[in-house]
Amino acid sequence: xxxxxxxxxxxxxxxxxxxxxxxxxxxxxxxxxxxxxxxxxxxxxxxxxxxxxxxxxxxxxxxxxxxxxxxxxxxxxxxxxxxxxxxxxxxxxxxxxxxxxxxxxxxxxxxxxxxxxxxxxxxxxxxxxxxxxxxxxxxxxxxxxxxxxxxxxxxxxxxxxxxxxxxxxxxxxxxxxxxxxxxxxxxxxxxxxxxxxxxxxxxxxxxxxxxxxxxxxxxxxxxxxxxxxxxxxxxxxxxxxxxxxxxxxxxxxxxxxxxxxxxxxxxxxxxxxxxxxxxxxxxxxxxxx
Length: 289
Prior knowledge:
The protein is mainly alpha-helical.
């Protein structure tokens, strides 16, 4: 009995550091943020409790509603494409061919570059009249094809999604590749004997056993796409106007605009906007597994 108590005590003692870190870096900021969202604090003076006024103001703000739409559209375009591109890359890189290591490196390389720097690189490439792509098209006599792709809502959103997918598809690929390499080759051999090869092997062997990798990628891509900031800030700064402004940029601008309490309320709303699809994805992928 004493030994059992000692073991329980030892286990609790070992969990204390993790619990302290969880409390300091998650629970305390969460509670503090929830409290701050109910005030009109400007970041400097004395905070005054105003209840749910910040939340009511948010849902009556047309700019904020437009930012929600932009954030959701970006996620709907980016998250599925990231998974499709990552899986396609992984299937290709899982084969045997010369230069495979170099190909993997080039696909993954954009993911290690800061998204802010990546946005500025593409901004310089896409500049109308002086960007690299304009000069490239101009050299082949197709300069008239080039327009101000970042100057209109539709093309700007398309560029943002494609740049984000291009940058992070390699990271998604690595997770899928790890899943593919953990599948025993004997299963494919058994499948061949039963007449399952090509598309059938992919459908009945590869996809089901990639369940954990699919789950990880879906969750991380949903979170990353809904909380996007850097690439939008550096490429369009939320323009033209505020048409490509995302919620994370809106929060930053409200905070620096002496609306700290209000921006915290928006951050709480954004937390739930991210949480709901993540929980739905966890449930759906859990059922599939």
